Amino acid sequence: MTSYLRALRLVNFRNYPDDTVVLAPGLNVVVGDNAQGKTNLLEGISFAVTGSSPRTPNDSEVVRWGRDFARTEARVYLDGGERAVAVGYAPGQKKRVTVDGAPAPSLATYAAGGAGVRVVTFLPDDIRIVKGAPADRREFLDGLLSTLRPAYARAAIEYAKAVQQRNQLLRRIRDGFSSERTLSTWDRKVVELGETVLRGREAALGPLEAYFAASLRALYGPEKADVRYSYSAPLDGYAEALRGAHSADIERGTTSVGPHRDDFGVLLGGVDLTTYGSQGQQRLATLALKFAARDHVRGETGEDPILLFDDVMSELDERRRDYLAGYFLESTQAVITTTNLDYFDEDILERSHVVRISGGAVSETTSGGVR
Ligand SMILES: Nc1ncnc2c1ncn2[C@@H]1O[C@H](COP(=O)(O)OP(=O)(O)OP(=O)(O)O)[C@@H](O)[C@H]1O
Ligand SMILES: [Mg+2]
């Protein structure tokens, strides 16, 4: 049995003053009207397990209005025992993360499975992974790889900083305050970190593409699906490409090659869905990417991540809703929000744990079958 979340307590988190939610293995259906706190609950689970919000980089947003801290506590079932994890945040202070009462070594190690369980989230806005800008796609890839390896997370953060510093240097050179010779020192640092990022991405792309193709086939149809990575500079020619870009980079004051400029295309039947996909195709491809992330985490760690899928049923047809319900039921743990239980068949609900949310309170928790 792999690990899952048994219970979650949210204190001053978004619209929750102090609430505890009990969760079951398998499918948990969170039901409530609009603006009651369903998305906030999924965000709270993610915050508890990864130490940050999947919705915003600005932690103070999660603190309940008028309060000066937010806290999440979770009980994780693992190896037949239990682990207690807590994340406390007060604006202006360092986040406090504890595992069984002891401080976590770092946020990066905590985010990479320190809680004993990982999450894969699907939020309505995630469609931008397919529909949006290259930065949205890179963020998806970097987020996934960071939950698998803290070393990747650190390299990606350090790389971004090194590129920013290189950009400052480029502008000083352009404005005559530095000489071009100083650039090669920074190039070495940028290449070293950038190569770690590129190697991490390269190793993941093969399996991810295979998982993605299989998921999209199940969700959409038999057309061939691909993920196509496009390099601004390939791994083996990276240092030369950076050197070759010196004068253009100085002129523009930005670094034009490296993993921060790469992208990947999401293709169906050879057609790029970012440019040509219908809304439904883009949404299903986003789902398939999330399923691929689940499979990749499972392949790398041997453990299923918890699936946190927000309002995923509403825009799907009945056949796809049935497929998804089956998929979630067979997951180690899935927490799915909905405004309407009619999206789930009676026999699915009988095998699920239903949680009702109203006005930032968990008003009723029932196991199965009650509408
Ligand atoms: N920091 C905060 N403090 C207090 N309330 C907040 C905070 N952030 C958001 N809220 C409120 O929480 C309420 C519930 O939001 P949430 O997004 O969880 O609703 P939901 O149940 O997912 O609704 P929908 O079905 O419309 O998606 C909203 O009214 C929102 O304004
Ligand atoms: Mg919502």
SSE layout and pairing:
Elements lengths: L3 E10 L2 E7 L3 E6 L6 H13 L19 E9 L2 E9 L6 E4 L2 E2 L3 H8 L4 E4 L5 H4 L2 H15 L1 H25 L8 H37 L5 E6 L7 H7 L1 H7 L10 E6 L2 E2 H4 L2 H23 L4 E4 L8 H12 L3 E6 L7 H5 L2 E6 L2 E7 L4
Parallel strand pairs: 3-13, 3-14, 8-12, 12-13
Antiparallel strand pairs: 1-2, 1-4, 4-5, 5-6, 6-7, 9-10, 10-11, 14-15
This protein binds adenosine-5'-triphosphate and magnesium ion (MG).
* Distance between the amino and carboxyl termini: 30 Å
Bound molecules: adenosine-5'-triphosphate, magnesium ion
The quaternary state of the protein chains shown equals single chain
What coarse outline follows from CA principal-axis ratios?
A: globular
Helix/sheet category: alpha/beta
Biggest β-sheet description = 6 strands, antiparallel
Amount of beta strand: 15-25%
Question: H/E element string?
Answer: EEEHEEEEHEHHHHEHHEEHHEHEHEE
Number of strands: 15
Mean pLDDT comes to 95
Query: What is the highest CATH level, the class of the largest domain?
Result: Alpha Beta
The rounded Rg comes to 22 Å
CATH superfamily of the largest domain: P-loop containing nucleotide triphosphate hydrolases
Number of H- or I-type helical stretches? 12
Order the strands across the largest sheet as they lie in space: 2-1-4-5-6-7
